[in-house]
Write a structure and sequence with these properties.
The chain is of the alpha+beta class and 494 residues long. It contains 16 helices and 23 strands. It folds into two domains: 236 residues, Nucleotidyltransferase, domain 5; 216 residues, ATPase, nucleotide binding domain (Nucleotidyltransferase, domain 5, 2-Layer Sandwich). GO terms for molecular function: kinase activity; phosphotransferase activity, alcohol group as acceptor.
Length: 494
Amino acid sequence: MFLGIDIGTGSSKAVLADDVGRVLDSATVTHDVDYPRPGWAEFDAEGGAWAEVVRLCRELLSRNDAGAVAGMCVSAMGPSLVVTDGNLAPLRPAILYGIDARAVVEIRELTEEFGAEAIFRDAGKVLSSQAVGPKIRWLRNREPEVFARARNWHSLNSFILAKLTGELVLDHHTASQCDPLYDLRANRWHPERYDAVAGHLPKPRLVWPAEVGGRIHRQAAEATGLPEGLPVCAGTVDAWAEAFSAGVRQPGDLMLMYGSTMFFVQVLGEFRAEPKLWTTAGVDPGSLTLAAGMSTSGSLTTWLQRLFGDVPFEQLVTEAAAVQPGSDGLLLLPYFAGERTPVFDPDARGLITGLSLRHTRGHLFRAAYEGIGFGIRQILEYLENAGEPIRRVAAVGGGTKARLWTEIVSNITGREQLVPEQTIGASYGDALLAAIGTGAVPAGTDWARTVATVKPDPATAPLYEKLYATYELLYPSNREHMHVLAALQEPAVE
């Protein structure tokens, strides 16, 4: 058996799978992320992430033979920043990925220090809140006593690896989101920039996500119930582990992840970069990916459900399905929490236009699905304009269970979507990484099996083409007004 564990934004999940990808058992623990100040997002690495890994291992091994586990791998939300003392005790809560935007000043500082063009050339992306480097500099500037006590730094998945094995290892993909410390073209740490940002903190050893990073030591075996000496693969950021689980591994493959936010990962055939997208190392050795993300998707439909008095979700989907395509002239811009790709504007705001007295909650719910669909189309066009055609789209995530949503997206984008059999997500990809990394299966093994194909309805194309033209005008036409209104709301994340 192979154990995969993922520490996500809303829960941690574990799965046991055999060497042909059959799921033998699984377990889940839910949790919350902390938002201690506007623009901050944190998580307890010890009492949260590590404690949940121990709990999940104990639960699964209470029902399964620990001796049959041949390897494991852990992914996590990221890239995140965990700093520890010499005993691997975290010195503060983990600073999370792009949703934590505290290092605004440090982003500007490092961009000026190393040059925007040089960073973009070597990192494949513009320095942003997604990068770890500015957060290390923030710690050095704002919490110097913590930085001085720190002996190592980790992302969440590599922190768990260290707790299990004692090894200081980071996977190449996560490292490629630690701008400006990593040279993406050379797949190595950038020596001058690393020293200028991380100072006395040692460089983690770089490995690819499926490579064995270490073996479980005695203390970890006693805590988890796993066998001492069990090989542990490096793992990676959860979205990339999920893409791997869906078979997104060849140039032109794209993962479309339907979750609280919408996330895109496309495999590249060669190095390409576009300022409004993120170029990163991939999961397979030497591979590259292009990524993008929207700030709201499932979170928007959840908000509408609450707004309507917690009407059962299935009922809202039924009402939306009864509405004609185009929502009878209702159009929604889904920037309710600002937006990442393609505008990168934290002060952007949601917009519903075309409202009339004849519109119902079914119209609004369908308009939300369609608005997200238009945003997806816009990003897919950016991805293709970066230079490589998208040949295959794998749809993953909880949102794929709402067939109406995937149908609307296919109709708006004109693209076919493949839905895999297993929707467990990143933890399933972790189990496959463990099977590959331990040599139990060949490196090219793919467990993804398509169970549904969502095809576009050409009859809807003319209407959606007309609405899309209007959708593209909504943000530029209203940007200044949005910023005025955003200033009257809670302090915006920059």
